[in-house]
Amino acid sequence: MKLQDISMIRQILPQEMPFPYFPDRQSPWLLCQSMQAEMPISDLKQSELSRFLMRPLVQPIVASCGGVLRRHDVMAVAHADRAMRLGALGPAATRGLEVAYQSDWLDFCLSFDIWSGEQTTRKAHNLVVQLGFPSEHAALLWQFEQRAEVGAYQSSLHPVRRHGRPTLAWCRLDLDLQSGHCLIEEIQSDWLRFVGRARRRLQHRAPRSRALRLTSDYEQSLQQRYAKIWADVMMLSVLMLLRDEFAVRDVWMHQPEPGAKLKGITWGRLPPRSIYTRLPRAFGFQQTREMPPMLGSKHRSTARRAVKEDQSIFWRLHF
Asked: Tens of pLDDT along 78-105?
């Protein structure tokens, strides 16, 4: 991306955006991006969208829709934090909202930065979307006496916040505003991994210490609360931002091997494969040998050489 494009985006967006998350929020949101205004359940069952019908938040909507599912009702549940503004909610939306409101909400927040370092495909700049911990995390820091350790749980070499809520995860984007395409360069989290590293260090140096007990309890709380959801929350927040704020219609994401080649990752710890395999698959990305239109011929040649002729190169999600 160009610096002026990122500067313009950061001027448009607030410094911080609330992002409430409730379990399975991604399912109704993804469904309403792809379905027609009204669809018979029998037709949905015969389509690629059938995978959503038994999801925890979609199932109660389906059960109350009378055989025809309205996109408006599905959207209301996906945007349960402001559903009352949508008006004209049917019984299906009402039932789905009841389930959503009874679930456990987390008030994450988004903030934005610029990345001009290494591991960018086009050797340019990325827009960074930072996922801040929900407010409940402050109580965990106090409870387990971890406030003094906050700096040790994130790297100054990574695009994390220096002030405000600590960064649970971040996503780097190469966004082409003219074509409406976006390449997800990276989704990553330091915090949980660094807490585990601190706990292992204490096990070696002070196996009977109070610090070890507190750090272990803190790690366990983090794992129970965030380990299984942080990547889903990060992906959903980015997709909603791209679709709702910038009208992006095509989102691309790296595959592990060609992605490492394109970003120049030739040594050190490679990114976890699950982030570049399980995560895009769970959000409906399709594997493809096509490439983002903003990539030049040199990037395309590098990507093709990284895989066999019959293997996919990127993930692609088209809204």
From this structure: 999 988 777 778 899 999 999 999 999 9
Rounded CA Rg of the chain: 21
- Using CA atoms, how far apart are residues 21 and 102, in angstroms rounded to an integer? 13
Domain with CATH 3.40.630 in the chain: 106-186+243-318
Cβ-Cβ contacts under 8 Å for 26 (sequence gap 6 or more): 232, 235, 236, 283
Distance of CA 79 to the CA centre of its chain: 16
Are the beta carbons of 106 and 136 closer than 8 angstroms? yes
Q: Which of 173, 172, 161, 104 is nearest to 133 (CA)?
A: 161
Cα 237 from Cα 285, distance rounded (Å): 16
247: enclosing H helix or E strand:
none
Amino acid in position 67: G
**C-alpha distances in angstroms, 234 versus 8, 230, 259, 284?**
22, 6, 19, 15
Task: Indicate yes or no: pTM above 0.85.
Answer: yes
Task: Return the sign of the alpha-carbon dihedral for residues 216, 140, 106, 186.
Answer: negative
Half-sphere exposure of 95 (CA within 13 A, CB side): 15
Least Cα distance to 285 among 7, 33, 14 occurs for 33
In sequence order, what are the residues at sequence separation of 6 or more whose Cβ sits closer than 8 angstroms to the Cβ of residue 159?
113, 115, 128, 130, 170, 172
Residue range 106-186+243-318, CATH number: 3.40.630
pLDDT in tens, 220-241: 999 999 999 999 999 999 999 9
SS3 39: strand
Contact at 8 Å (CB) between 242 and 182? yes
Sign of the alpha-carbon dihedral angle for 272, 277, 281, 287:
positive
Query: Going by C-beta distance under 8 Å and a sequence separation of 6 or more, which residues neighbour residue 60?
Result: 95, 96, 98, 99
